[in-house]
Write a structure and sequence with these properties.
Radius of gyration: 20 Å
Number of domains: 1
Shape: globular
Structural class: mainly beta
Distance between the termini: 54 Å
Oligomer: single chain
Number of helices: 3
């Protein structure tokens, strides 16, 4: 059976590691990455020349670590996803039953790491690393509500 080495992420991420993080910033919450669960469809504009499409803006109106402290979880009760200029979805952050790991291929092998898989693992050349452990999901169970009064401009 083939094996692939799996490396842990660094305990103290450097600032350059966060700047080069390939994961979407839309899914970042104050507690880390989260799944996004929607009850419906998001309709995207026609394909553009951009590599990625911004769906909207994720906001946590009750999150204030300076006022409430880092351990406060009241911010999880209210989350807004603004889609375009005219729609807002209200939701909340829920804890997953079982956390799971987000992994990716490791770009370069570190000489400090010890390969635990024996000769098979060394011959594959592939290595994986844990990017983050996902413990929460953002649940939007209601339909979007209209906000604002203008029509979105098309360019």
């Amino acid at each position: 059976m083939p094996t692939i080495p799996l490396h842990q992420r660094p305990l103290a991420p450097s600032s350059s590691a966060q700047d080069s993080n390939p994961l979407p910033p839309l899914l970042r919450t104050p507690s880390g990455l989260a799944l996004l669960e929607l009850q419906g469809d998001i309709r995207f504009p026609p394909a553009a020349a951009q590599a990625s499409t911004q769906v909207g803006k994720l906001m946590f109106p009750l999150y204030n670590p300076d006022l409430n402290g880092e351990d406060d979880t009241k911010w999880m009760k209210k989350v807004y996803l603004y889609v375009g200029k005219n729609q807002r979805m209200a939701g909340e952050v829920k804890k997953l039953g079982k956390p799971f790991a987000v992994i990716r291929k490791k770009e370069s092998a570190d000489s400090e790491d010890v390969v635990m898989g024996g000769a098979e693992a060394a011959s594959t050349g592939e290595e994986l690393e844990i990017v983050e452990i996902v413990k929460y999901k953002i649940l939007f169970a209601t339909r979007p509500e209209p906000v604002g009064g203008g029509v979105e401009e098309t360019v």
